[in-house]
Known about the structure:
Layout: E1 13-19, E2 28-30, H1 35-47, E3 57-61, E4 70-78, H2 84-98, E5 105-109, H3 117-131, E6 149-153, H4 160-185, H5 193-207, E7 210-214, H6 216-221, H7 225-231, E8 239-245, E9 255-266, H8 286-301, E10 306-316, E11 328-330, E12 336-338, H9 346-359, E13 364-369, H10 373-379, E14 384-388, H11 391-404, E15 408-410, E16 428-429, H12 437-449, E17 454-458, E18 464-465, E19 475-476, H13 481-494
Parallel strand pairs: 1-4, 1-5, 5-6, 9-10, 9-13, 12-16, 13-17, 14-15
Antiparallel strand pairs: 1-2, 3-4, 7-8, 8-10, 11-12, 14-17, 18-19
The structure holds ligand BES, manganese (II) ion (MN) and zinc ion.
Amino acid sequence: MVGSLAETETECLVAVVLDHGEKQKNEPKLATKDAALEKAAAELAASGEITGKLFETVMLHHPQGLKAKRLLLVGAGKAKNFSHTELRKAAGTAVRFLKPKMIKSCAFAVPELSAGPEDAVRSLVEGAFIANFDPDTYRSDRKDLRMKSIAVVAPAGSDQAKYQRIIDQARAVGESQNFARELVNEPSNRLTPTALADRAKEMCASVGLKCEIMRPDKIKELKMGAFWSVAQGSDEEPRLIVMRYEPEGAPEKPVLGLIGKGVTFDTGGISIKPADGMEKMKYDMAGGAAMIGAMRAIALLKPKVKVISIVCATENMPSGKAQKPGDVQIAMSGKAIEIINTDAEGRLVLADGLHYARTLGCTHLIDAATLTGACVVALGMVNAGAFANDEDAYQHFSQALQRSGEKFWRLPLDPEYQEMIRSNIADIVNSGGRWGGAITAAMFLKEFVEETPWIHLDIAGLAWMEENKSWIAKGPSGIGVRSLVEFVKTFERNGN
Length: 496
Ligand code: BES
Ligand code: MN
Ligand code: ZN
């Protein structure tokens, strides 16, 4: 909405406070220049109870001179470091602060941001929606704490229609990220490969995307020997999910291929994982979920770029039918793979997914997968891993990161690593051993993209939040969705 903050009727008006002080000194100031707001917060400011430090929250009832019932001040740190990333989290912090108090609606004052008011509104809305998600779906005494209405108050005289468009788009992105999180949150007994395909199909129907689901017969007919080798050990049938976004007026090229690892449960197979923590392997389809979420947002945002998304959905199980270490499998591309470790299954399903995307005419590929524990060892839970075989494609991705605020760190793909995945009996092995495990996994995928420009995202460390944060719940994070959407949008802006 556009109008005056003083006149805004809401359960709670939310404003950001920044610290303009040097180093240790605090100099808190409202990030929104508004006389009524400043007056309402003056007494509190004088009391020294607000410092502006990151994600500090101070709430005031009956703020003087405002029609709002409450005023919530959220700290967003040092003014000189303030960007859309802090703002997204500050907005999330406000929502997660208000939710347990059963406050169902709030309105945000738009802060001044060096990137401009449009970016400010976009990050506010994204952050608020992301914060509105909680994972306790199956708790029998679950209370629905969700915020029902989130408003943004742009200064009087702003272009209402323009802001509404930005709000709608940011909402589409935030809700799509939450959709991906819902899928990741589901346990593997409820979200089998078949169920994942059904959910994708349902989503596609609701936003007008084409969706094709391929069953075992078709997967075998396509000679997807790498994908099939993982699926063969499970009683649950695999599914190959193909979603298409082909808008009218989009150029013939580029055609972007979004490929996701959809392992709905990873036991490790015959190279079975230890029991400790195995329950977490329900999130081994987070890369696939990110693609499904991104496709939803893309269908709603309607960029003029062709996008095809492929999710290889299967379980990785030990059984009498499961593949064994030493087995040799022929991938769809014709490459022969010696299986060293059946737990290195993600790269097998992606090998065929990536190759298939090329046969469908994709000119650029991007994949996301909870691929390696080694990536978590290398980067911890702060950055996810990114790899690229093409500088131009990486430029697009890097621009996307600047808008999404998601953290990825690029890792190398030197040809020397190739030796580590050489096989004695076949073309390549599926495990390069301990050293540089995230890199040798990426090198394996590289064998299947050949010369096609390609980005690989290893999200193993970030797809699941180990702790509650003030701006996001513990559990599935939905990482990747925002960057994938922004990645696609960069091709609309500057072609290929
Ligand atoms: N899904 C796992 C990777 C993973 C580990 C994701 C931890 C999230 C958290 C993957 O399929 C796997 O098991 N990778 C192996 C590869 C190894 C056998 C070469 C790994 O990382 O240990
Ligand atoms: Mn595995
Ligand atoms: Zn896995």
